[in-house]
Amino acid sequence: MSNFKKSKMKKYIYQFIILSGLALAAGSCSKAKLNPVSSTDIPSNFVFLTKDRIAHQVNGLYAQLKVGNLLGGRWVIYNDVRGDNFINMTGNGVTALLIWNFSVTGSDAEINNTWNAAYNTINQCNLFLDGMTAGGDTVIKDAALVAQYHGEAKFVRALAYFSLLQLYAQPYSKDNGASPGLPLRLKGLTDNGHNDLARSTVAQVYTQILSDLNDAEAGVPGDYGDGSLNVTHAHKNAVIALKERVYLHQGDWDNVIAEANKIVPASAPFKAPTGVANTLATDLKDVFTKYTTPESVLSMPFTGANEQPGTQNQLAYYYLPDLGNGEYSLNDDGIISDAAWKTTDARRAFVNKDGDGVSWLRKYPGGDPYVDWIPIIRYSDVLLMLAEARTRKTNSVDAQAVDLLNAVRHRSDPSTTFAPASATELIGDILHERDIEFLGEGLRGLDITRLLQTFPAKGSAGAIDPSNAAYIFPAPTSETQYNHNW
Amino acid sequence: MRKLLTLLAVLVLSSVLAFAQTKLITGRVTDQQGQPVPFSTIRVKGTKKGVSADADGNYSIRANSGETLIVSGTGIELKEAAVGVGSTVDFTVNRKNSNLAEVVVVGYGVQKKSDVTGNISTVKGASIADNPVQSFDAALGGKAAGVQITSANGVVNNPPVFRIRGTNSISLSSYPLIVIDGVPTFTGDVSMSEAASNPLASINPADIESLDVLKDAAATAIYGSRAANGVVIITTKHGKRGKTKVTYDGWVGQTKAFRLWKMLDADQYMMIKNEGVANKTGATAKFLPTNGPDGKEINTNWKDYVYHTGISHSHSLNISGGNEATTYYIAAGYTRQEGIIVTNTFERKNFRFNLDHKVSKIFSIGVNAGYSNELNKAATSTGSLPGQAYSTGGLGRIALILPPNIAPRNNDGSYNTNGAAIGPMNNVKPGISYYNPVVLIENNHSSTENNHIQGNAYLQLKPIPDITLRTVYGVDNLNSDNDFYLTPLNGDGYPGGEAINTFLKYKRWIWTTTAQFDHIFADRHTLGFLVGTEQQNTTQLGFGLDRTNVNDVYYTNAQGGWTDNVSATVNNNTNGINTQNYLVSGFGRLNYDFDKKYFVSGSFRRDGYSAFAPGRKYGNFWSASVAYDLAKETFWANSGIGKVINTLRLRGSYGTVGNITGIADFASYPFHSTKLYDGTTGLYFSQAGNKDLSWETSKKTDVGLQFSLWNDLITGDVAWYKNSIDGLIINIPQAGSTGIPGVPNLTIPMNVGSMYNRGWEVTLNARPISNKNFRWNTSFNITFNKNMVTALAPTVPNITYTTSGLEQTSITLPGYSIGTIYVLPTAGVDPATGRRIFVNAADQKLGYDFNVKKYYDLKTGAVAKSIDPVKDKRPMFNAVPKYYGGFENTFHYGAFDLGVLATYEGGFYVYNGTQASIRDQRFWNSSVDVLRRWTHAGQVTDIPRIVYGDNVSNGSANPISENVQKGDFIKIRNASIGYTLPTKLLSKGGISNARVYISGQNLVVITKYKGPDPEVSTNGNDTQGQGVDRNSVANGRTLTIGLNIGF
Fold this sequence. Notes:
The structure holds two protein chains of two kinds. Chain A starts with a helix and ends in a 6-residue tail after the last helix. The model of chain A has no long low-confidence stretch (mean pLDDT 93). In chain A, strand 7 and strand 8 form a beta hairpin. Chain A has 19 helices and nine strands. By secondary structure, chain A is mostly helical. In chain A, 48% of the residues lie in helices and 6% in strands. Chain A has helices at 3-26, 31-34, 51-65, 74-81, 97-100, 109-140, 143-168, 172-175, 202-219, 229-232, 236-250, 253-263, 284-289, 315-319, 379-394, 399-412, 423-437, 444-450, 477-480, and strands at 42-43, 86-88, 180-183, 199-201, 296-300, 328-330, 351-353, 359-361, 374-378. In chain A, helix 3 (51-65) packs antiparallel against helix 6, helix 15 (379-394) packs antiparallel against helix 16 and helix 16 (399-412) packs parallel to helix 17 (423-437). By secondary structure, chain B is mostly beta strands. Among the domains of chain B are: 18-96, Carboxypeptidase-like, regulatory domain (Immunoglobulin-like), CATH 2.60.40; 103-241, TonB-dependent receptor, plug domain (Ferric Hydroxamate Uptake Protein, Chain A, domain 1, Beta Complex); 828-872, no CATH class. Chain B contains eleven helices and 56 strands. In chain B, the strands form eleven sheets. Chain B has a 22-stranded antiparallel barrel. Chain B has a five-stranded mixed beta sheet with strand order 10-15-16-13-14, with no helix packed on it. Residues 1-20 of chain B have low confidence and may be disordered. Classes of the chains: A mainly alpha, B mainly beta. The interface between A and B is large, with 98 and 103 residues.
């Protein structure tokens, strides 16, 4: 290569370097753009920084409990349609048909969705409790409020575990809780690698639930001083009422009575002496239309456009033939066939016969957007649970039990007064009353399984006895496929 | 104006200089068609003086009058021209018919095909321009080796399944990066209505000059983190110097469904269903005829209401031309295309404006801009787009399964409805939950309207001939309006009605600056060096309104009067969308060759991407490649074999690229979101994120051989490739009890999996006959691809895929190809009992009796444990084709031309889920297959005993192997016959050329597949759910007549 060419080449190279340097400078990068901040989601490390966000997280725990796959719809529906009072009308596989006829399998979405929703709620509670301990408590400062938030989180966690147990595990009464229960998750999880966890026994899960509820009872206020909060957040009486239910499901009559006695006076008028003045609503219909009645110990609220149960989760969608989709009608051979349930009983107004002679439940009256509140614990349940426990405990025609039963009946039907001749008859009357009183409120399935009764046949669906595998929900595959310690 | 004066001065000056002894000669090298011949060499005969023409064929050289210029180059014949008194010498050269002579578009530049060391296939825009497709990608099938285009359904403007060398991701997109005139564009289906909307439809295929498909690391590494799926570079047409040319291309055609399932008529239906009822204990349903208004029994063929003959037409007009300094291409297009489903249409109005201007010798500028308005309509769910397979109103399924003994209208003309569902007429308790399609078709409406602007402006500086500096700013703005109306009369909108209007705005800007240095040292050392920077910013904004309970049925849009506002869902996000991502890059490429025989090339790119957590944002990508042109060696060229084998070129490349397409913009971040609780704010953990998340890495190896024989009579290209993908992002499923957020599946994305695609590509082109009257060109390509998943995560033995959220059809697991069909094995029908025989995991054969819902051991007759889909399903059939390709033949005889393109795919299976639908024994209508049902002991048949309500025996409840079929097919994708009108006749009208043609798409389908169309992909482009045909509408057959005119 000649010198001339070399120098020319050098010139080219220099020019090239200078010009490409300029070119590169033109494309300098923007650090901010490389580290964008979401404008629609809140980074998780921000959520314990302020009192407001912590308070919002508490609301969020209830909101997760209230999702359509859990207490905001399907959990209630599943426990009703497993029972004998409803007939599937549409044959639609995504609206609990397979749960209704006990053919649901572990891979079905309904089984997995409710499981996942409950555990999502549990993990939210765990994360919240961890985060509060790690620093949230110091942000709040106020010790009472700290105790309240911890208590509410534990209440929500207990209710989620309790709700799961009733569907996915053998009843406690089968073997005093010796059956496999649920994986007991008590630490918040945010990352991969925590799939494997063996199931604790049913009894162990009950123990945890009661431990949480005892903490909650100590932490939450007796009265929020707000009609809505007293129905939508855990207050002392709500915690006590849930404990009463938990003990009832364990067949621990002493403790049912002990808990109930905290909020039920020995004789009429039955009205909680402390905390929120829970008592029976004068008109039962108010519970389903006005929502924040003294009878509503705990309900799942819905409000207008942005707070709905979601498509095909709404109770009215299932039960109303006109405003809803008429998924389930009332079984003519179910409780509505009971002759002793008088036509003058106010609760008969919830049963509505159409032109074709098909009966429908009209307890949740609102159509789209389906924002009727869902009662989870009513004071009448508090009364009837106590009545049952007293009767079973004493194995006699317990006077207070009869009073409690009559209190519930008289509210809707003053013309009927129970005067049972035996403890057995009284128990029968109480269970009967529960069937009428809580029709379509998600308690029928629970009452059948806790007493190890057979699910009666209905329509084309056959009876399912406690020895049948379908008596409880199958294990969800979203768990069994990935939890190798199941 | 000043520039013009300067130019004028230069021109005057140069004409003065022309009288000097040595003068500057400028000119242009074009071929017979007037197309520029780039990079040819112009020498002064008898001297060593020589220059190279530029990419547009322009050159300038100093020479004396009386001397002779010689032009030479790869792929063109030598030509000489004497230098006369003028200063312009233009060459019109004859092209040799060689693919290696062509120019290919590479990342951030162009190269001569003979210099390229990477694997790039070029498809000429002209070869797809007349196809009656909505977007160009749909026309690429069979056109290039390695490219697999599968038309997923018969919905217009649905993006095809587009793969280059197999599926290269599990959780992210496997769609190639599409770069239009330097701007990477949006891909996928942007529609949020019932219509499909492929944003690539914004480009009128008639405006495309070329489509270059970049396949290996050498070609793609310069695109770094987005190159794993290959890159397709679209170059739109530019004006050429010379007389203004006007071209009109138009066609009109019709599309029809074909190969549809044959269903039972009303009498057969009632006979079968009542037989089922008789076989079912306690069944109370009865199937009874109803008389229509004519007094005759109703016998409805529901397909008549869902399918029709679609009419389509397209018109493209362009004006192009230019002078020394300025060239332009201006185009307008209009097309309206109807699908085979009633009310499904696509309409596009588009304009394009491309201008290039040379301001001075060193400075040029230009603008490329396209505007398009597309209206995609489908009144109601076609049931054919991903996620829709089980839509209760999905037309694909409804056309099959509605009872033929009911009619859409009652005898008084009113709609036959029963609440949300169609009415049962005289049938007793059939439990029909499906909708009346006629109500939906006539009353619902849904559309996606896009306004799409794509374009760029560039400045280019050539301070000295060897250096090109270029800066390009591009935009891609897509505004998408989605309208959705559900009638209150029937279907999903019952009883209140619903209207949704959503608006989505995709905005991207990209700024690319490059510096290119090219020089030939000592005549034989060619060096090319490119460095560049690029920033790309993308934002997406979306919001909408969802309203229910109409005040008055008069209102049919969301702006009308409604009672309730539901939070609108935009991409399932109730708050709408407001998101962004940013990519910042530096890149470079070095090419060197010695004597045009030995080639070495390397490229590098460093990308920083915003979606990853700090510390994980940057990645480096690179490639190295070599090539050796053996036939250029003297010993070869002079030998006997050199006369036969004119080109023999070996090349190899290796490199690493990435994939980020499909990663959510904030995928790595943990988030809380808000939702209401009793009207107050609730805050909850909504996304786990993963701070270690990163791009997927694809290591690409490519070894190839290009050859031409007997003066390019036969040319070919053979390549072996392997893409090893590591760090595949897998959404690691979390056990339900972990409570990790995610609906319906709880997952955390992690870079854990690995997979490879490897195979062979063979392309053969030949012109067996080529004389004045008759020419025959033939081109064949085949790709053998083996896809294999090699690892998932330690905790994840497999990933199952659920079609449309309901049916688990596919599984991805190591040792199998991605998305292997996952079914319960069945073994026909037990001749003794008519029960479907299931095979459990222990290989026991069990007969199923739906009447008692029990399984019986076939050997012992004892009741057996029920089939459990989780334990008993098996990964049984590969859904990924083992080979695919195309075979194209064109014949020219005088003024006539004939072109036939066949495409084929083979070595794969399709889960024919539709067959499960049409053998389901609920009230659903069945195909005529069920007439072969088992009726008596000893009967050997494939259809079990009919039991009313049976959704298990034929595979509705769980997918069964009975419904899996071989998908191998050959399709005559396109065939056309054209006639070019005699020029003499036309020239009087100012017409320079005119051709008329008739053309057909999907004329012939050869397959053993029992469904209408083995190409159907119910899960669209999804990587894990290929090979599933569940209730989707098949592709139609299209016939067109068209006209191409040039003025």
